[in-house]
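Morning F.,

Quick status update on the modeling queue. The single chain you submitted on Monday has been processed. Sequence for confirmation:
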Amino acid sequence: MNLDLSVRRAVHSFTQYKKFSLDALATYATRLFVGLLVFLTNVVSAQFLGPKIHGQFVVVMTLMLVGTQVVGLGCHSANTFFSAKHNVLVRSLLKFSFWICLGGLVVLMLLGGVASSVDGLVPVSLGLLFLSLMAAPLRAFLLLIQSLFLGLKDTWNYNMSETLWRLFSFVAIATLLLLGVQSVNYMMLAILFSLLLAIAISLKSMSKYLLVKPDTSDLLNFSKYMRYGLSIFVAGFFSFLILKVDYLMVKYLIGVKDVGVYSAAVTIAEVITIFPVALGAILFSSISSEGSGNNNRGLLNWNILLVVLGYTPLAALIYFFRAPLIGFLFGRQFVAAEQALTFLLPGILFIALTSIFQNYLAGLGKKKEFVYPPVIAALLNIGLNLWLIPMSGIYGAAIASSLSYFVFFICSSFFALRIKNEQ
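Structure tokens below.
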């Protein structure tokens, strides 16, 4: 009897690991392609526009991403969490997502109007500010749709949705630049159009899950949805600050040209995070649907091992070839990014591992443990940037980032491993 049970558990574990590995591989391949598109978009923009105008584009995109975080309210994780547990909730979750993004658009427009009335507060022109704020709810809505695909374990549409908007954006921006249109305004219009197109295609793919309209009142209500989403929002917003606030602080403390140079180092460093982000997304979906257990604890260990094995050779290659890599891709104007990249690389390992631990905590629904690490690390990051950027420029920003990533890793791993050992 015990032998038969052990065999069934072994078969279940093998099947789960096999499915997880295949989904992770497909997602990684897609994210690698998407990462390449993002990378090429930054390279083409830097080559055609130069550090100053490219820096302006980076700042505008950062504002769009800030707006996306604010609008989304962490509901992308709530979508995945609840749709993974109960597939019949998709219609309700999509309806919630639409109204949240529509309300977010109104709020962002009001905030933009207030901010633009204060001299020196907004780091870009009024037109670019409102273009970025218009793009933010669209990006948030696309992410919310993708999160439903992830919860439904529809890996194909989850990956295809992100690929399409990145591909549309790259083609549109590259076409503008090749035609000699060196305007950040037109580049943002291209991004808006790409988002609308990707949303339309994604909704068409989602329609097959909306054919049945079950009674879900006992499974989910808006209050329950938002309670989970807001806890993720707090963690996600502070995580975003850890990863992106250095752009805005470099802009305010030393100038937009330095943002352009610094972005070259960050763009290359972020290539390494594609793999752990893909793993983390699939891990979150798996744990959300199955909860705690020996198999999911094993998945956590497996993910950690994969990240370490995948990171080490890639980081070594980037480190030894960083100078020719930056020179070839971005040009001589970006040579200062070489040393910044050196300072960033150690921290990238820690942020990659943290991605795994954070998705593990979120999948288990451990809201408090999920929130504390990014809040601590983000506050440290802001303080370090205020201290180090005036002293050391973009090198100070890189050092601040690596130190913050390390603290983020320590806090997140402490909670994740403690919970893992208690179960």
